[in-house]
Structures are given as structure tokens and as C-alpha cells.
Write a structure and sequence with these properties.
InterPro entries: ABC1_dom, Kinase-like_dom_sf, Prot_kinase_dom, UbiB_kinase. The protein has helices spanning 3-23, 28-32, 35-39, 56-63, 66-73, 75-84, 93-99, 111-121, 165-183, 187-192, 195-209, 212-226, 257-263, 266-287, 320-334, 338-348, 357-374, 381-394, 402-420, 426-441, 448-478, 494-523, 531-559, and strands at residues 129-132, 138-139, 143-150, 155-161, 232-233, 246-250, 289-291, 299-301, 307-309, 315-317, 350-351, 397-398. It is α+β, with helices and mostly antiparallel strands and 560 residues long. α5 packs antiparallel against α6 and α9 (165-183) packs antiparallel against α11 (195-209). Residues 523-530 have low confidence and may be disordered.
Length: 560
């Protein structure tokens, strides 16, 4: 397709989007989002539909139409709405609540067209499949699933990407990109959000979600991780029948969490709730990779008491450093330690300009107090995370985009667990997982009581010491900093004694650094390499270099 044809296709799509906005009462967005200017649209807003604003109550009623409008606009907008539903830090709750109602219930594609896609991707598919049910198990914006049976008798689920989905999504992403470029130049938008970064993350995530080979890889990864605890599992992928357009996996009989509320014994419900929540917390706090959308439709409960995760199109990842910060946050929340909560949030986030620290402290303290007392000590951690984001945003502190998915996933997982056990305690379940993390990665020789008592204090002091150490060493080498040693009455040997003392002082520093590096390298042992472990290596290298330099200086002086 020629460039002018692509541009015309984008303009026509923008025109259609503008028409849908006007029809649902959101005509003012045609101007506010820059659609008329960006795409030279005509024929809109002749009746004043694109100007003005609504009173609060009127706009609240209008927002209820959002899910229907986005579903009509197609998969990219459905996914974008779901993405925005996690931005409770900048979007009013009544808007995010409306966006959470996006169901993705679409009209199924006729099976004849689905079968054609199967044939294109698996020529001679009849050699593998004994039967494929033409009635879909489920239909979403990107794909639909069909029950099937293989020649060897095993039951499977066949997930088929709907036709033209990629072209439609790429077209809509081009329209949205132009809107984002326009909005990024608006100062009032930049105060709230780095919209370019947010959209880039969304677009990258969506492109991965529509590639079923990526999802198959995620399923296999979680199959390995979840096997460690035996708390949950995933379907088995049939790799020879899977590619970017098709995903064939084991069929697992089970019920949703909603069905379990009525059909499962209360004791078993509580056990399932604890299994599910513990399996999710282990993903976040131990593995550093988690299911990004653990809503009830993506979790099944089997008659054997198993928790089964489905649909791994959205997966979040956390680096080891961020995992440690999350652990600190968890401990701070458990101990009602507002100061540490703020310090860790500051390390995670970024800010510019003046911040009223006293007001920030008071708002965070109030959030923690309300969270603990309104829930009788059983903090709803998902809401707590979003609350911290809102308070931080209010004071000009921006939380990294990657944590928004985590906050959303936390809230969903906790909500699902409470359906089965309303009294479930998130922090109580997290405590042994935190201890396991600390034991494996930070303090392998400590008792559990000592870990919880000293973890925050030790980590805080280590970070301060490590942050000041490079400047101290640089000051020594430049001569800006000196180790004060005064010897009165010995001027007659001052020069030689001064050199000897300096060598002794440097030797003490080097010995201390070698000792510190060995301790930190030992503290970082375990399956997840912590920053303390790596700092130990850096100190060891610096110490060895300083030792070589000192011997070189002594050797030169001896020769003289």
C-alpha cells in the first residue's frame, strides 16, 4: 500500500471514530483530542455537539456509555479502555469503574472463516484433530476459542486470532499515536502523566498480546514457576499446533470463582482462596513475573481443588531491585511505618519541583491509618497501592508505569480471593513469603524474628552508606578528603612518618572494603542476585585496584 493510501486509511478511520464519539455524546472530544485539526475532518459538530462541557451529574451519566462506545470502536479501544481503568491515580474513580465493565463480549466470527484460518496455519489439520466444535467456548475482541479433540483422544482448546485483527489494531494505533502526539504538547496533560511513555507501554503490550506464540511462552514459563509450590497450575501447550495465530492447549474442566461461591463448601472455598492468593503473591514477591489480568474469567477451580490460571496475554515483570522495594513496602505497611513507606516510594518514583514534605507525610499517614482502621487491620493492599499512587501524584511524585499493572493485578486478585473468603488477610498470607524472600536473598543466616525486626533498618543504612562511598573514595583520591591524624612534637620525621601513616590508613580502608565486600557477596547468595551481592563484587574490584596501586607506590618509594 502506498504512503498516501495508508494516510487516507488513517484519516477515514479517524473520521469514523469522530462520528462514534458524537453519536454517544462525546462530541467535545473531537476538538479536545485534536481529531478535527489532525485529520482535517469536516461535517462534524454542526449542531454544537463538539463544544461545551457537562455538569458533574450529567457527565457521570454520560460516562456510563463509555464501555458500549469502546466496544463498538473495536479491539484496540477495548484494550485501551482496560488499560485506562488502571489509572486511578489520575482518572476519577467513577470513570475507571465504568471502564472496568468492559466485557469484550463480541459477535462470533462464523466457523467457516475460523476454519479457513486454521487451514492457512495448519495445512492438513485433520491429521491432528479428530473434532473441532463449531460453537465457540468464548468470543473476545482479539480471538475466539473452540473446544476440540485430538486424534489420540485428548481434549484441547483451540484459540484462534480473528481475521483482520492485526490490520485493524495497527490502524487504530496510528490514529491514537497522532492523538497522543497532540496531547503531549498540552502543559495541563504533562502535569498529570507522561502520555507518550504510557501509550508506548500500552502499544507494546497490545502487540505482544496478539502474538499467541508469546502467550504460549508465558504459559510454559508459569508452568515451571508454579510447579515449585504446587499451589496452582496452567494448561499444557501443544507446541506443534501453536503459532502466532493459533494456540492449542490442554482443556481443563473447572468452574469460575463466582460459581464456586454458591457451589463449593465454605471450608474448601477458604482453602481455594488462600491457594489462589498465595500463588499470586509468590509470583510477585519471589518470581518477579506475574499474571497481569487474574480476573475470575482467567482463573478456574477444579473438582480436585486445583487453581488453574488461563490467558497469559498480559504478563508483568519486576526486576530484583523493584522486588526488594516491594518487600520493604509490605513490611512498612505491616508495621504502620509511614516514614519508610515514603522513603521507598520516593526511591521508586521520580519528581521535579518543590514538594511539601510535611503535607505528603500527613496524607500518607492518613491513608495508612484509614486503610488499617476501616478494614479492622485487614488492609486491602490493592486499594492501598492505588491510594499511594494517588497521594504521590497529588504531591508531584510520579510512580513508574510498570507498577500500574501490578497495582491493577493486586486489586483484581484480592477482589477475587474475597469472593471466596471475605475475611482473607492479604498481609498475613504475604508474611511467610516475605520471610522466604529475605532468607534466600538478603539474610540467609538470620532468624525469622530478627529478619522482620532489622530488615528495614539494615537496608536503609546500607543504601545510605553505598550512596556516599563513591564520593568518599573520589574525595580521597583527589585529595579533597583526608583522614585526620595529628602527631605533635615529631616534626623532625614528619615527611616520612606522614607517608607511612597514609599508607597504613589506606591499608585499613582497603582491608575494610575487602571485608565488607566478602560479607555482602555472601549476603547476596541465592536464586535471585540482589543489589547487595553486586555491590560486594564492585567493592572487591575497587579494593583489589587500590591494593595494586598502593603496592606500586610503595615499590617506587623503596627504589628511590
Amino acid at each position: 500500500m502506498a504512503t498516501w493510501q495508508r494516510e487516507e486509511a488513517v484519516r477515514q478511520r479517524a473520521s469514523h471514530i469522530a462520528g462514534v464519539l458524537v453519536r454517544y455524546g462525546f462530541g467535545f472530544l473531537v476538538n479536545d483530542l485534536g481529531l478535527r485539526r489532525l485529520f482535517s475532518l469536516t461535517g462534524f459538530c454542526r449542531s454544537g455537539d463538539c463544544v461545551g462541557r457537562f455538569k458533574s451529574e450529567e457527565f457521570r451519566r454520560l460516562v456510563q456509555k463509555l464501555p458500549f462506545m469502546l466496544e463498538e470502536l473495536g479491539p484496540a479501544f477495548v484494550k485501551f479502555g482496560q488499560f485506562l481503568s488502571s489509572r486511578q491515580d489520575i482518572i476519577p474513580m467513577y470513570v475507571t469503574d465504568a471502564l472496568k465493565r468492559l466485557q469484550e463480549k463480541m459477535t462470533p466470527v462464523p466457523f467457516a472463516r475460523i476454519e479457513q484460518i486454521i487451514i492457512e496455519n495448519l495445512p492438513g489439520y485433520g491429521d491432528w484433530f479428530d473434532y473441532i466444535d463449531p460453537e465457540p467456548l468464548g468470543v473476545a475482541s482479539i480471538a475466539q476459542t473452540h473446544a476440540a479433540r485430538l486424534k489420540d483422544g485428548r481434549r484441547v482448546v483451540l484459540k484462534v486470532r480473528k481475521p483482520e485483527v492485526i490490520n485493524q489494531i495497527e490502524l487504530d494505533l496510528k490514529v491514537l499515536q497522532k492523538i497522543v502526539d497532540f496531547l503531549s504538547k498540552q502543559p495541563e496533560v504533562n502535569k498529570l502523566i507522561n502520555i507518550e511513555t504510557s501509550f508506548a507501554i500500552f502499544a507494546h503490550s497490545l502487540r505482544k498480546e496478539i502474538d499467541f506464540s508469546v502467550e504460549a511462552g508465558n504459559i510454559q514459563l508459569f508452568q515451571h514457576l508454579l510447579a515449585d509450590s504446587g499451589l496452582a497450575r496452567t494448561p499444557q501447550v501443544e507446541w506443534e499446533l501453536t503459532n502466532e495465530n493459533l494456540l492449542t492447549m490442554e482443556y481443563i474442566e473447572g468452574i469460575s470463582m463466582e460459581a464456586a461461591v454458591e457451589g463449593v463448601d465454605p471450608t474448601e472455598r477458604r482453602q481455594l482462596a488462600h491457594k489462589f492468593l498465595e500463588s499470586f503473591l509468590r509470583q510477585v514477591l519471589l518470581y518477579g513475573v506475574f499474571h497481569g489480568d487474574p480476573h475470575s474469567g482467567n482463573v478456574r477451580l477444579t473438582a480436585a481443588g486445583e487453581v488453574v490460571y488461563l490467558d497469559f496475554g498480559i504478563v508483568g515483570r519486576i526486576d530484583p531491585r523493584m522486588m526488594e522495594r516491594l518487600i520493604e513496602n509490605f513490611i512498612a505497611v505491616q508495621n504502620a511505618d509511614v516514614e519508610t513507606l515514603i522513603n521507598v516510594t520516593m526511591e521508586i518514583g521520580h519528581f521535579s519541583g518543590e514538594i511539601n514534605w510535611q503535607n505528603y507525610y500527613e496524607d500518607m499517614a492518613e491513608l495508612l491509618y484509614m486503610s488499617q482502621n476501616m478494614t479492622h487491620g485487614k488492609i486491602e493492599l490493592g486499594k492501598m497501592i492505588f491510594g499511594m499512587m494517588q497521594v504521590s501524584q497529588k504531591h508531584g511524585i510520579h510512580i513508574p508505569e510498570r507498577l500500574l499493572l501490578l497495582g491493577k493485578a493486586f486489586a483484581i486478585a484480592e477482589g477475587n480471593a474475597r469472593k471466596l473468603d471475605p475475611d482473607i488477610n492479604f498481609l498475613e498470607i504475604s508474611r511467610p513469603i516475605i520471610l522466604e524472600f529475605l532468607r534466600k536473598n538478603l539474610m540467609p543466616q538470620m532468624s525469622e524474628t530478627a529478619m522482620l525486626a532489622s530488615a528495614l533498618d539494615v537496608k536503609k543504612k546500607l543504601r545510605i552508606a553505598f550512596s556516599e562511598l563513591p564520593a568518599f573514595i573520589s574525595g580521597l583520591t583527589r585529595g579533597d578528603k583526608k583522614i585526620p591524624l595529628e602527631l605533635s612534637g615529631m616534626d623532625f620525621i614528619g615527611d616520612k612518618l606522614d607517608k607511612s601513616i597514609n599508607r597504613i590508613a589506606y591499608s585499613v580502608i582497603i582491608a575494610s572494603m575487602l571485608l565488607a565486600s566478602s560479607i555482602m557477596m555472601h549476603a547476596g547468595e541465592g536464586p535471585i542476585q540482589s543489589e547487595i551481592h553486586y555491590t560486594g563484587y564492585y567493592l572487591l574490584l575497587i579494593s583489589l585496584g587500590a591494593t595494586v596501586y598502593l603496592f606500586f607506590k610503595i615499590f617506587r618509594q623503596v627504589k628511590k
